[in-house]
Design a protein that fits this description.
alpha+beta
Length: 74
């Protein structure tokens, strides 16, 4: 699982860049997430972070109940 999370953070951050480009979101509303294979975890965009500021580092990892497991944002 150690290598999967950084790769998923990068993939989810890249996919988020496509959302405003394609007119699919407004402001900071809406997101893409990815389930971590083999774990009850997901990688998702931090709440309130604008799309033009997103990087793999500010993606967060949550459990399936929405509890923060890894990351510095809510």
């Amino acid at each position: 699982m150690g290598e999967r999370i950084p790769a998923l953070r990068a993939e989810v951050a890249a996919l988020h860049a496509e959302l405003p480009r394609n007119g699919l979101v407004a402001w900071t509303a809406g997101n893409v997430s990815a389930r971590v294979p083999g774990a009850d975890l997901l990688v998702i965009k931090s709440s309130g972070v604008s799309y033009d500021e997103l990087t793999p580092d500010n993606m967060v990892v949550c459990d399936l109940d929405g509890n923060l497991v890894e990351g510095e944002h809510s």
